[in-house]
Amino acid sequence: MQLHDLGPAAGATHRPKKVGRGMGSGKGKTCGRGSKGQKARNKVALGFEGGHTPLHRRLPQARGFKPVNRVEYAVVNVAALEQLDPAVTITPEQLYELGMLRSASERLKVLGDGELTKPVNIQAHKFSAAAVQKIEAAGGKAETIPYRQSARLKER
């Protein structure tokens, strides 16, 4: 079989309809478009509803601005750190293994909701001011780490 032998299966294609070739052809005069009206004369616009306001104009528009490069953070509160072992430095990878994050490559932000009594050392990409205050008041340490793009690509 050669490239020039390839083609559609027999009966899969139809020859185009020949219109405007006289009354004997069956598609003469109005050429199968009926008589008069917008559809007989030209193409009807996509979404045209016979003079009604079209659906795409009746529905409300989505307002606002969606930034293309928005940075999303996975959030963990200080109260959730209370149940973790204070002897080990907590990293985003450990929180992922414990089921507190959906993905190992998510950026982590620690928020200050809840109380903390144990001194915990935690590494995260971002901290709220209240979280840093509560972690340091309990004798722990909040360390900011940079986000590595390569970790996200490894997961894929």
Describe this entry's structure for a reader.
The strands form two sheets. Strands 1-2-4 form a three-stranded parallel beta sheet. A two-stranded parallel sheet has the order 3-5. The chain has helices at residues 38-41, 55-58, 78-81, 92-97, 129-137, 149-155; strands at 73-77, 107-111, 121-124, 126-127, 141-144. The relative contact order is 0.11. The chain contains six helices and five strands, in the order ααβααβββαβα. By secondary structure, it is an alpha/beta fold. It has a domain at 73-135 and 147-155: Ribosomal Protein L15, Chain: K, domain 2, CATH 3.100.10. It is elongated, with a radius of gyration of 33 Å. The mean pLDDT is 90. The protein starts with 37 loop residues before the first helix and ends with a helix. 22% of the residues lie in helices and 13% in strands.
In the CATH scheme, the class of the domain at 73-135 and 147-155 would be Alpha Beta
- Cross-sheet strand order for the largest sheet: 1-2-4
The value of Rg in angstroms is 33 Å
Number of strands: 5
So, CATH architecture of the domain at 73-135 and 147-155? Ribosomal Protein L15, Chain: K, domain 2
Unreliable segments of 5+ consecutive residues: none
* CATH domain fold name of the domain at 73-135 and 147-155: Ribosomal Protein L15, Chain: K, domain 2
Strand proportion, as a percent range, falls in: 5-15%
- Average per-residue pLDDT, rounded, comes to 90
Series of secondary-structure elements, N-terminal to C-terminal: HHEHHEEEHEH
Number of helices: 6
**Shape from CA axes?**
elongated
